[in-house]
Amino acid sequence: MTDKKLIGVDLGGTTIKFAILTVKGEIQQKWSIETNILSDGQLIIPDIIDSINHHLKMYSMEADQFVGIGLGSPGTINFKDGTIKGAYNLNWQNSVYPVRDIEKGTGIPVTIENDANVAALGERWMGAGNNADDVVFVTLGTGVGGGIIANGQILHGAGGAAGEIGHVTVDPDGFMCTCGKRGCLETIASATGVVRVARDRASEYAGKSELKATLDDGQDISAKDVFDLAKENDDLAMIVVDYVCESLGFALANIANSLNPKYVIIGGGVSAAGKFLSDKVDAAMRKYEFATIKASTSLKLASLGNEAGVIGAASLIKVD
Amino acid sequence: MTDKKLIGVDLGGTTIKFAILTVKGEIQQKWSIETNILSDGQLIIPDIIDSINHHLKMYSMEADQFVGIGLGSPGTINFKDGTIKGAYNLNWQNSVYPVRDIEKGTGIPVTIENDANVAALGERWMGAGNNADDVVFVTLGTGVGGGIIANGQILHGAGGAAGEIGHVTVDPDGFMCTCGKRGCLETIASATGVVRVARDRASEYAGKSELKATLDDGQDISAKDVFDLAKENDDLAMIVVDYVCESLGFALANIANSLNPKYVIIGGGVSAAGKFLSDKVDAAMRKYEFATIKASTSLKLASLGNEAGVIGAASLIKVD
């Protein structure tokens, strides 16, 4: 195997994370910079180029010591021409050309991929995915995103939306989603979804609960607060968490029933609730899965945390 | 492209279908024999060998004029050692070795695949699938089966159950399924499922309906009868068909929301109800799909009928 290195770049709305990795996926250096979304985000790509060049100089490394740069980005990626559209959190109004521009600016070949898919690839390669050929990754953050790896390849689908499992319909009579339909997984199992369910259930709850008292008092709560209270057996918080886990289990079980992945991996902020969350989701999944799936598909918590993005981005680079 | 030919074999519980095809998928000859399941099905593989050899002789063809034989079979296929297990409708009690035995008996290389996956590959290659890279195929027969093609490859999953979408849970409080859980798509949208729904709804139905009268009279009905009556606006039949199509639309929309295939294709006996069925399923799907999916995934009726199996089996053969 080559001694050359990989560069993984995880472009987010707040920070841009960088790492230099071996071809085996070990991180040797990492750093990050703020994402400057001023001037329609036109400074972002020059900033990425400058930061890479600056660090290579600092580490006394040359472009030809690298196989490539992998970049995970928000937005819809056009793989043919290497452009990105619709990355609204970066203020990009028009198509941008990261592949062309970063290759030119660094002298290193660039491969790009959607950020949720990159996190999925990272967890698959070096995290909970154990490098399995079939992995479904769901990230429970502000929204619910995901990525599907089947036969060892990330799926894009006909319109680039494969793996966007946040918009699987869980409850046809449920909450309205920003996507325009009702009862999407994202309206329930995202960080904002958990809080929405809490407020909804609180309005009809009459028992004794600290969560209820906090909400009635007009205080802000977070998904973490809800899970923390549920861990302390707060009655309303338990009702909320049970509904969230049941809904998540239903959606993930049906994806598992269709795809029979080796692992379903839960990541993102809400997954910080850990085994308390995954045990409940697992129980719900098993209720809705048929025998072969129960025997061959397992639920796991993501293990890479913040590094999933840079590792997954680096995994995009084809190493001969 | 080579002038050599392909042989597709579709092994079913009642008949074994054979075809000789060009590498472009055109059928040049086809025939079929009865499946002899006596003697624990031990005569099936010898019968396949004899029938191929007999027909090659009849057409004055030699083994070296063929690239390979593709075989679609019920049961669970072990791709490593070329064996099949659990094909209960063929009376096979133990593992059988079709790859080894048919290669030896004909002198032609053999590739095998699950029967539902083979039908999916056939529809994808020469039928409604338009040779797209991402196709979900669902077959509504005695049961509900299916196959998923993603990135141009059939998916097997970790336990070989990828694409078995008949056991997606549609209604957690629904009918008990043979698989042991409740509300599987198969309990509603298979031929037997449609009849089950009809009987269930009839028991609580009080209006005027020929379907109700037929059932109350103790007559047997088929899924086709229910769809035929619904087409004539029979009130109870419409209630049944609406529930079946709504359930199917919900399940298929969520698969589409996860995988974003180019086409979702409905085949099998129940799909003979044609556009009447697919229009209703399409309307339900669109209700449960988010915008990108509505714009890039389309529902279609299967177009190959009985030939999907032999064509899909032939497509298993790698042509250089």
Automatic annotation (TrEMBL), chains A, B:
GO molecular function: ATP binding; glucokinase activity
Superkingdom of origin: Bacteria
Record's keyword terms, sorted: ATP-binding, Kinase, Nucleotide-binding, Transferase
Stretches assigned to coiled coil: none
GO cellular component, one term: cytoplasm
One Pfam family it belongs to: ROK
EC number of the protein: 2.7.1.2
SUPFAM superfamilies: Actin-like ATPase domain
UniProt-listed GO biological process terms: glycolytic process
Enzyme class: transferase
Record has Nucleotide-binding as a keyword: yes
Family membership: Belongs to the ROK (NagC/XylR) family.
Cited PANTHER family: BIFUNCTIONAL UDP-N-ACETYLGLUCOSAMINE 2-EPIMERASE_N-ACETYLMANNOSAMINE KINASE (PTHR18964:SF149), ROK (REPRESSOR, ORF, KINASE) FAMILY (PTHR18964)
Protein name per UniProt: Glucokinase
Organism: Companilactobacillus ginsenosidimutans
